[in-house]
Design brief:
11 helices; 312 residues; alpha+beta; 5-stranded antiparallel β-sheet; 11 strands
């Protein structure tokens, strides 16, 4: 009998271990506060982030394009903000060239119709680090996460992190889409301009908008980081995508606008381009509804078409 009890206990421990191994911390987190008096707005949240040392690259009202393009919205307001910290970018720039995947970082700020709360979603620091190829215990990533919390608590003093009502999917795939271009001719600057002109010219025909543009290399050079000819980050949004996905997953703004980096290191002829692909959305947010999956996969296909076209 004792042997059976020990065997049963061992099986319980093994099962618990397997369950823990298959359960991941959420890559997206949501901070929620009561806002019955409507005093907290996207503007007051932006101001709190600015006071905490963040640069605000964009803070766009999405209800206007929702109503313009679809004559409908699920929200009293829904904003997509794009923020970053110069000190974090500068500290990581030389060793971790993929920082542009979440520098700047995207957030959604929203109140659903009829609700008395306000919510803010953002990428969790551990997920940001993992995707950018930075150790999760990196001091600059940890400090960044603390500054995000500081800004949110300043803007929403009674707010708290909530538990999302789903588990992440655990697909094993590469969540970054990468490609490279070769410098065209001897002048890196002329080559850059040609590629970027071609890239920007293809966005609108495929339904994308450029919600923001961040010249990270300007900040690098101002602070004696001399690794790159250029390092630019495009904040790209497809309104049809975020409109559809945000109906069930307003926290999707942690990935929208999507940051697509384009950089060239000094002494090299290769231009690197990458962005977090839509499979990350589907995995992290446990997206299962077909309309959302359809618009996401279509956007992925179209973005890859753009990159292939300007590469030729």
């Amino acid at each position: 009998m004792k042997r059976m009890a020990k065997l049963f206990a061992a099986m319980l421990l093994l099962t618990a271990g397997l369950m823990a191994a298959n359960t991941a911390k959420h890559d997206v987190r949501v901070f929620v506060s009561d806002n019955a008096d409507k005093k907290i707005t996207s503007t007051t949240i932006e101001e709190a982030f600015q006071k905490t040392g963040f640069v605000i690259a964009a803070n766009n009202d999405m209800n206007a394009p929702y109503l313009r393009d679809f004559n409908d919205t699920s929200f009293d307001f829904y904003n997509l903000a794009v923020v970053f910290r110069k000190d974090t970018a500068i500290a990581l720039a030389s060793e971790y060239p993929e920082i542009g995947l979440f520098t700047p970082m995207s957030m959604s700020i929203w109140t659903k119709k009829g609700d008395n709360t306000i919510s803010v979603s953002s990428i969790a620091p551990h997920a940001m680090a993992r995707i950018m190829g930075v150790p999760e215990d990196n001091e600059h990533i940890i400090a960044y996460g603390k500054k995000v919390e500081e800004a949110l608590k300043a803007a929403m003093p009674n707010g708290k992190w909530i538990t999302l009502p789903y588990e992440m999917k655990m697909e094993k795939r590469d969540f970054i889409t990468r490609t490279t271009f070769q410098q065209d001719g001897d002048d890196w600057e002329e080559s850059k301009d040609n590629y970027q002109m071609g890239f920007e010219g293809e966005l609108a025909p495929h339904g994308f908008v450029m919600a923001g543009f961040t010249d990270l290399n300007y900040e690098f050079e101002e602070n004696d980081v001399d690794d790159y000819y250029f390092y630019d980050v495009y904040s790209i949004c497809k309104i049809a995508v975020i409109y559809e996905v945000s109906k069930l997953h307003p926290e999707a703004g942690a990935f929208a606008p999507c940051s697509a980096y384009m950089y060239q290191k000094k002494g090299e002829k290769t231009i690197h381009v990458a962005f977090p692909n839509v499979h990350k959305w589907i995995d992290a947010l446990n997206i299962n509804d077909q309309p959302s999956i359809d618009v996401l996969l279509d956007a992925q296909k179209r973005f890859e078409i753009i990159l292939d076209k300007i590469k030729k």
